[in-house]
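Sync notes, pocket subgroup
Present: LS, DG
LS reminded everyone that the earlier model was apo-only. Rerun requested with 1,6-di-O-phosphono-beta-D-fructofuranose included. Inputs:
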Amino acid sequence: MQKSPLQIARGNYQPKLPVALKGNVKVQEGAATQSVADQEEIKALFPNTYGLPVLELVNGEETAYPAVNVGVILSGGQAPGGHNVICGLFDGLKRLNKDSKLYGFLGGPSGLIEHKYTELTADIIDEYRNTGGFDIIGSGRTKLEETWQFDKGIEICKELNIKAIVIIGGDDSNTNACVLAEYYLQKQCGIQVIGCPKTIDGDLKNSMIETSFGFDTACKVYSELIGNIQRDANSAKKYWHFIRLMGRSASHIALECALQSQPNICLISEEVEKKNMTLNEIVDGIVNVIVERSEAGLNFGTILIPEGLIEFIPAMKRLIRELNDMLANNEEFVALGTDDEKRQYVKGMLSPESRELYRSLPKGIARQLTMDRDPHGNVQVSQIETEKLLIEMVAKKLAMLKGEGKYKGKFAALNHFFGYEGRCATPSNFDADYCYALGITATYLIAAGKTGYMALVRNLTAHAAEWIAGGVPITMMMNMEKRNGKMKPVIQKALVELDGAPFKFFAAHRDSWAKTNQYIYPGPIQYYGPSEVCDLPTHTLMLEKGVIK
Ligand code: FBP
């Protein structure tokens, strides 16, 4: 396979490791835990994995470990660094015992159920060190939640003598990892399950998990692109750029990119919800900035839009909730032929307020709202073109103001959607190091016989040598939420906190970013050079940890 000079150089990059993971390692148990909410329900659902202690990996004595076979699964959307988790797992297993084996289940969780796997050998692993993507074994969104699926897992693990499964995924996949761990303990089949925190969305974080991997690299890629667009806008001075950013429900990506690039406007879905804003109010807010800038001769700018925005407009949220409940496993709806039939069906089933809203939406957006749910029952927000909806509404409002003589500027808009551009980027040094450490950590949790844990590495704003590795019981992060119309135990999603340092910093500066051009041009990710350029974590993390104020 042909490679670029950077690919070759990255293949030789040796990820930095925390001191505790460098030599002999032992597991130290901390205090017992409880779930973040709904303790009684979660405890009843997870009698074997509830209340376990937090774990820390510290330097230990030299220990002889038996060989162990482990299976690994990549679950959900790609995130930079996934390959390094697998490389860390492989190296960690070989460090424990050279006869240990790592199997990769192919195409996501379905690989476990359908018994599709490959043994990951040193030759394969070496091809993927420090690379982006999940192509080493592929990923998928099959939901592991039924006992027949778990039993199929037991069959293949017995056949391959696999003692532990590592699931690299987001909040839903790690929830499933915990359900699987609990089931295997109940069945006493001797298969451990360990999770790893993956998602570019940055919404899998809490008091123990400081960030999910992939967020750092993805945000740096999008911020570079936003910076480039800002420089173009500032040169040509003729376009407003409406830029939608991936991130599912949470606005962490949009906020982080705003902190890195200082655009004229950045919408934050969580704020829209808190302020109970309507779509028209959001449009008015954008229009005000456009009018004000036009009065200063600035008929251009940048607007960042989180992809989940639409779900956070309270009236829209109600509509989406009704649609989710109505469309979950609805074969009658699926059997309908045309878009119009589907539209009529939906209108007939909605509450009067939601029906009115649904009717008022442009047809394209209404159709996007009823498209296939993902396997977790969520509307696929990445396919809803909110940026186009906003351009259409803003243009209408500006034309009206022009007619009234209240706006004299020129409005030309371009739309962008950044998501796939960053999900498989070559991991930044931060993600390369973090992920490799997560992989090594997972091996020691396995060696210590742990199950129902998520591998964790924290203290991430310090130098990698000072990072702290360990494990957190997955039940600790859970609460009860409505999914597909039913209450389910799930890992609590972390949304942007409006009283958190990253949002407060943004809120304190956004007015001046709106009026004048204070664009920052972050440039591409740097892999080689001074540490303050190459190893910097996200602004979100640095603000949260008080490293910057
Ligand atoms: P997960 O990490 O939660 O799986 O999702 C990441 C993500 O990139 C979201 O930001 C986005 O909404 C979604 O995946 C798109 O997924 P797909 O490409 O499968 O439609």
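DG: Residues 76-77, 79, 170, 199-201, 246-248, 307, 380-382, 419, 423 surround 1,6-di-O-phosphono-beta-D-fructofuranose (CB under 6 Å).
LS: The longest helix spans residues 215-236.
Action: DG to write up.
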